[in-house]
Specification:
The protein contains 13 helices and 15 strands. The protein has about 425 residues and is α/β, with parallel strands linked by helices. It has two domains: about 160 residues, Aspartate Aminotransferase, domain 1, CATH 3.90.1150.10; about 260 residues, Aspartate Aminotransferase, domain 2 (3-Layer(aba) Sandwich), CATH 3.40.640.10. Helix 6 links the parallel strand 5 and strand 6. The chain binds pyridoxal-5'-phosphate. Pyridoxal-5'-phosphate binds next to helix 5. Pyridoxal-5'-phosphate (PLP) binds next to helix 5.
């Protein structure tokens, strides 16, 4: 039998054999060896609620039995075949994807599958360039779109950028971060300002036309920044005025996570031209992709675009099973109900503890911004780390985000129950009290 490595041995081997940029959470990192729906277990058998879904990737639950069965059945039959040959799974899945994307935009019909969100970002940008014949882009500050060169250039946080010759022609505008908007502005005035900024950037910093604007409907790594309801409508109108496409990065917000809606952008009443997907789409299998309109897709005619594992039969089988169980168990509705329970609990805590600056988000995509003082709003990153540590000791794994590292991210799998929600809130309070 294979010898089990201790956490210390794993840590030492990580230092020796993995790039030093590979980071971990916690003063004493946890070794997770087993997953079961919304729960994970460490190497000592301790059970945790995975309230961060392994970085927002487990959508329908760790090792969801119905999803596993279908992936394993496919694995036993044919593990890999590329799109150079016909296989039924990829077309079945693409057809289903067009159906679920219908509410976001009935014209979204044509997919391409990748292994990751970064590749999906690259492809979306390529499509936008090919279709519009122009190469300039606008993205939002606080955004995250991946780690390849174009994706890193589009990302609006220095934390996630290295010193590189970035791709030319990418500009950033303010995100709809109302908690940190200039104090004298109302939300509506702030949205006006953001839309004006976009127009000014296009008019003064580009050739006057853009290929696309890319945005996450609710920013994930940026700290669960949830814009005011009219933010995207205003931004979208400016993008269209200057001939650009609107790309919705649904890597975190897709697949029911934001509650009720399949894609996050559906909350904001604008019709994306391209959607990028990853993480929750595969529930733990390397699967990403884009969906776009037939007209935009035509811009790839006569050009070869190939991805060795993109559309692989096992990832297609798993992806299809994920779509089916989201529908079967009404997980998007569950995300709304359970998410609301967490929000209600956190808002009660906010009345008791002034370090909770804001509770925000939708469905099971929630953030709690922690500040040293509610007046100055000075971020509290150490408190954030201490809460995470204490919550882990109490059996709840939380995530964090924002440039300052002061936003707790609560994004458990969509199968999380009301009981779990209550545990998350009570553990949060225990952790907060100890951390203070
Ligand atoms: C919003 C968003 N876009 C893109 C990516 C990149 O995805 P991946 O890590 O699969 O390349 C991520 C996650 O890392 C993300 O959160």
């Amino acid at each position: 039998m294979e010898k089990k490595l201790t956490s210390v041995e794993i840590g030492n081997k990580r230092k020796e054999y993995l790039l030093p940029s590979t980071m971990t959470y916690y003063r004493n990192p946890v070794t997770i060896v087993k997953g079961e729906m919304q729960y994970v277990y460490d190497d000592k058998g301790k059970k945790y609620i995975d309230a961060f879904s392994a970085v927002v990737t487990i959508s329908v639950g760790h090792c969801h039995p119905e999803v596993l069965d279908r992936a394993i059945a496919q694995m036993k039959e044919l593990q890999h075949m590329t799109t150079l040959y016909y296989h039924p799974k990829i077309v079945q899945y693409a057809e289903k994807m067009a159906k679920v994307a219908n509410n976001a935009n009935p014209d979204l019909k044509v997919s391409f599958f990748t292994n990751s969100g970064s590749e999906a970002t690259e492809l979306a940008a390529l499509l936008a360039k090919n279709y519009t014949g122009t190469h300039e882009f606008v993205a939002l500050r606080h955004s995250f779109h991946g780690r390849t060169l174009m994706a890193m250039t589009l990302t609006g946080q220095s934390l996630w950028r290295h010193s590189l010759p970035y791709v030319f022609g990418v500009h950033h505008i303010p995100a709809g971060y109302t908690y940190r908007k200039p104090e004298q502005m109302t939300d509506d005035q702030f949205v006006d300002y953001c839309a004006r900024e976009l127009e000014e950037v296009i008019k003064y910093q580009t050739c006057g036309k853009i290929a696309a604007l890319i945005a996450e409907p609710i920013q994930g790594f940026g700290g669960v920044i949830c814009p005011p309801p009219n933010y995207f409508k205003r931004i979208y109108d400016v993008v269209k005025k200057y001939g650009g496409l609107f790309i919705s990065d649904e890597v975190q917000t897709g697949f029911g996570r934001t509650g009720d809606k399949f894609f996050g952008i559906e909350h904001w009443g604008v019709k994306p031209d391209i959607i990028t997907m990853a993480k929750g789409i595969g529930n733990g299998i390397p699967l990403g992709g884009i969906i776009t309109t037939s007209e935009i897709a035509k811009s790839m005619t006569g050009k070869v675009h190939f991805n060795t594992y993109g559309g692989n039969p096992v990832s297609m089988a798993q992806g299809e099973a994920v779509l089916d169980v989201i529908e079967k168990y009404k997980y998007a509705e569950n995300a709304r109900v359970v998410g609301q329970e967490i929000v209600n609990g956190m808002k009660k805590l906010m009345e008791k503890y002034s370090v909770i600056g804001e509770v925000r988000g939708k469905g099971l995509m929630l953030g709690v911004e922690l500040v040293k003082n509610p007046e100055t709003k000075e971020p509290a990153p150490q408190l954030t780390l201490d809460i995470m540590e204490e919550a882990k000791n109490e059996g709840v794994l939380l995530g964090k985000g924002a440039m300052a590292g002061n936003v707790i991210r609560i994004k458990p799998p969509l199968c999380t129950t009301i009981e779990d929600a209550k545990t998350i809130v009570s553990v949060f309070e225990i952790a907060l009290k100890r951390a203070m």
